[in-house]
Each structure stands twice: as structure tokens, then as C-alpha cells.
Amino acid sequence: MSTPAAAPPVCVLGLGLIGGSVLRAATATGRRAWGYNRSAHAVEAAVADGFDASTDLAATLARAEDARALVVLAVPVPAVDSILAAIAEHAPNVALTDVVSVKGRIADAVAAHGLSARFVGGHPMAGTAESGWEAGSADLFRDAVWVVTVDDGTDPDVWQHVARLALDCGSVVVPAESREHDSAVARISHLPHILAEALALSGAGGGDLALGLAAGSFRDGTRVAATAPGLVDAMCEGNATALLEALDEAIDVLQAAREQLADGSTGDLTRSGHDARTRYEQRQRHPITGIVPGDDNWIELLRAAGRQGGVWK
Ligand code: NAD
């Protein structure tokens, strides 16, 4: 059994919507917390709001290394590699997590920089359509789900530090293996975007008459197609492998429905789709108990608990 020390200070790299909200939420719990942002504008705004922030990445990381801080990587995917290189150079011994919405490729990038031993991935399932420091809030993660990864070789102390941070931010923690996470979010987030875009196109293909008749089912089914295309591209392209698998399954379902309809029935699709939606509405979360990070088989046990709807509170 492992008994982690008191919650470490928190160092957030990237002070946009998510990183800025982590800095605010961590500070609000009384933890020592500071952050780095590349642009001076966000740093000036954070400092003006009373937070501890800098544009000097090397100095911010040296401070994290000295304080044995938990470093939170909160930049977009294209920026991850250069920030990891800086961490490997200036803070190779810190505990490290991230908030990026795809997990497998971040774990691969962390491994490529030799930082896996003290890395545990994270994904707070919270956000808004806004970005930047000004959009953040200490309450953004309240009552949200925060995935904390349990990959092979995960350090139990770092896992507990990352889970503690998520809980301190007001979330519940769902443990999941990185690639299982990517597969799950492809199905419940990225595929819905693709299908909504396709449905919007189908409606527009009917011209002004079709769009003029559109009511609730078209509005609800296409709601996320109103998202800025660049954001959808970044999400979908960042999780392409898992999304392709989910998309292939959906195409098979549509193809089977097409064949059935040509024979005069949509029965199989409507019944199984209705059952699946009912299962979603009736899902329940239960607290994970009796698993101690570091005990025998804890990684497998936590993954299984997460799969079964368990949350770490
Ligand atoms: P954001 O645009 O609000 O903030 C991004 C931050 O990264 C900014 O402070 C920017 O200055 C910084 N940055 C960008 N490029 C950089 C570079 N090359 N070097 C250094 N810093 C750079 O975005 P966000 O919504 O806070 O997203 C941050 C991360 O959180 C992303 O990886 C995203 O996948 C993840 N995430 C976003 C949401 C959401 O709903 N927005 C939800 C969960 C997770």
C-alpha cells in the first residue's frame, strides 16, 4: 500500500480556458499554485487577477522541480511536444499530468521524452465554447467527470496526486486506460460531431423548403454542428484512429438500416437504438471502494471499476 505525502503545489503550463481554470481552482483550495503562459497578455491578466504567473517557461519549471510540484500540461496538442522537451530539460523529476482531450498520443509523446515514470494523464470533461484566460473559472470543473488514466506502470502516488487535484477542483474521477478513454470519447463526443455535420448537410440538401420545415429533431440532432469548424477538426483529427473505428461501426449500422428499409422495415434500428438511449438515461454512478492504489492488481481493478460506472470520490 502507498501513502502519498500531502498534496503538492501545482504548476500549470498554459493559462487558457482549462489551464486558467485549474490555476484558479487549485489556488482556491489553498494550495500553492503558479502558472506559465506563452503570451504576455494572459500572464498580465492572470497577475492582475491576483494569480502567480510568468512568461518564463524555464524559470517556471525550475521552480516546479525545486518544489516537487505537480505539473499540469494545459496546452493544445500541437504545443505538447515542445513543452515536454522543456520539462525533460528543466524539471525531469516532477509529477506530471495533462488535461488534453486525447490520451493515447499524449502518453506516447510523454514516453518519447522519457517522462512516463511520473506521468498520469487526465481529461476533465468540462469546457465552454470560449477560450483564453478570461473565459476560465474556479468552478468550471464542479460536478464534472475528470478521467485519470491508469496505464501499465502507473505510479500509485502520482495517480493519487492527480486524482486529488481533480477532486479538489470539484470533479469526480473516472479511472480509465488511455486508449479505452480515446475509444469512449470517439463514440460519445467525436462521432456525434461527424453525424451532426452530415445531418446538417442532409437537411440543407433539401433546400429552403426542408430548412423552413425543420423543427426539434433537426435542431437537436444538428446542435453541435454549430461548433466552430476548427475546434471540431482539432478534436476529430486528434483522435482519428479511435474515431475511424467508431465511424466504421456507425456506417455498418446505417448500411444495415438502409438494406432493411429497402425491404420495408426500420424495426431493428429503432428498437436497438431506443434500448441504447434508455440505457444511457438509466446509467448510474457508484463510488469506487476497496481499491488501494499500489496494492496488488490495483491498475486492473481501477480500470474495471471505471468501465462499470465507478467513480473515485
Ligand atoms: P485555450 O485556447 O483556451 O488555451 C490554450 C493555451 O495554450 C493558451 O493559454 C495558449 O497561450 C497556450 N498555447 C497555445 N499554443 C502554445 C504553444 N505553442 N506554446 C505554449 N503555449 C501555447 O484552450 P483550452 O480550451 O484551455 O485547451 C487547452 C487543452 O485543454 C487542450 O489540449 C484541450 O484539448 C484541452 N481541453 C479542452 C476542453 C475545452 O472544452 N475547451 C475540455 C477539456 C480539455
UniProtKB/TrEMBL annotation:
The keyword Iron-sulfur does not apply. GO terms for molecular function: prephenate dehydrogenase (NAD+) activity. Signal peptide: none annotated. Keywords: Oxidoreductase. Residues 8-291 form the Prephenate/arogenate dehydrogenase domain. Pfam families: PDH_C, PDH_N. InterPro entries: 6-PGluconate_DH-like_C_sf (IPR008927), NAD(P)-bd_dom_sf (IPR036291), PDH_C (IPR046825), PDH_N (IPR046826), Preph/Arog_dehydrog (IPR050812), Prephen_DH (IPR003099). The keyword Oxidoreductase applies. Residues 262-281 are annotated as: Disordered. Its EC number is 1.3.1.12. Residues 271-281 have a biased composition (Basic and acidic residues). PANTHER family: PREPHENATE DEHYDROGENASE, PREPHENATE DEHYDROGENASE [NADP(+)]. Belongs to the prephenate/arogenate dehydrogenase family. This is Prephenate dehydrogenase. It comes from Rhodococcus artemisiae.
